[in-house]
Amino acid sequence: MSGAVVEIEGAALAFGERTLWSGLDLDVRPGEFLAVLGPNGSGKTTLLRVLLGLQSLSAGKVRIAGRPPGKGNRRLGYVPQQRAMDQQLTLRGADLVGLGLDGDRWGIGLRGLRGRRRRIAEAVAAVGAERYASSPVGRLSGGEQQRLRVAQALIGEPDVLLCDEPLASLDLTHQRIVTELIDGRRREAGTAVLFVTHEINPVLPYVDRVLYLVGGRFRIGTPDEVMNSATLSELYGTRVEVVRVGGQIHVAGAQSALCEDEVHHHLEHTDEPVP
Ligand SMILES: Nc1ncnc2c1ncn2[C@@H]1O[C@H](COP(=O)(O)OP(=O)(O)OP(=O)(O)O)[C@@H](O)[C@H]1O
């Protein structure tokens, strides 16, 4: 036993002729914060789907807390990519958060019910969502819905938290609230965090290691080891300039190396920070 809570060994994933990544070996320790970066279509979400047991590997194996993914693995929390919820959805915010407790043994009776209510209230308060916790989620803004999803993922006290661009629709204040919440959880409870993001800067102070995927290749290391001109130039196969300004990382020049149209489209603004 390596002590890692996520163990990925010799993993490969291909769809038809296209290999997203192969030869991926990665152990994630309890409490570690791993940022998963890479351009559109590089396989970031697919990696999370493998860990969730929703996608099988083409080769290799994956273990979460020593067990295969899927199989009722309650050790996982998941914050999906932001998608607007159906406006007609009448489920209340607090009930959405409470779904994260499903499968917990609350027992029957008032004590179980009170305990459940208290935990939901605490989770709602932790993301600052008290004001709208009783409203139907379909009527809430994208950012409000996203804070409830984070509360839902954390309430089950997971050993591993999988986040798919959880900051995408949040303003700067709520980006900070959510990242500090996730950071607090991993520090206090040793939850390992795999955080897919296009933008490393909002989480840079927390990141222990980066997994950077590009066109079937990848690098794993500390932000300093991966987010530098030499490493990213090698990964993209062209000259890429990485500059640190005021504690932030800016990447320029990667777009010319990317051959997929959608990637060009995504990166067409030269001053946009490249993932
Ligand atoms: N079940 C599938 N069958 C075939 N191709 C798939 C399947 N699932 C994903 N893909 C393809 O694999 C590629 C990687 O998708 P994925 O969603 O993992 O990328 P990503 O890195 O998360 O991208 P983005 O930054 O755009 O969210 C995409 O080209 C996608 O179309």
Automatic annotation (TrEMBL):
Alphabetic keyword roster: ATP-binding, Nucleotide-binding, Transport
A Pfam family of this chain: ABC_tran
Coiled-coil intervals: none
SUPFAM superfamilies registered for this protein in UniProt: P-loop containing nucleoside triphosphate hydrolases
Keyword Metal-binding: no
A GO molecular-function annotation: ATP binding
ABC transporter domain location: 6-240
KW Transport (keyword) present: yes
InterPro entries named among the record's database cross-references: AAA+_ATPase, ABC_transporter-like_ATP-bd, ABC_transporter-like_CS, Metal_Ion_Import_ABC, P-loop_NTPase
Family designation: Belongs to the ABC transporter superfamily.
Protein name (database record): Metal ABC transporter ATP-binding protein
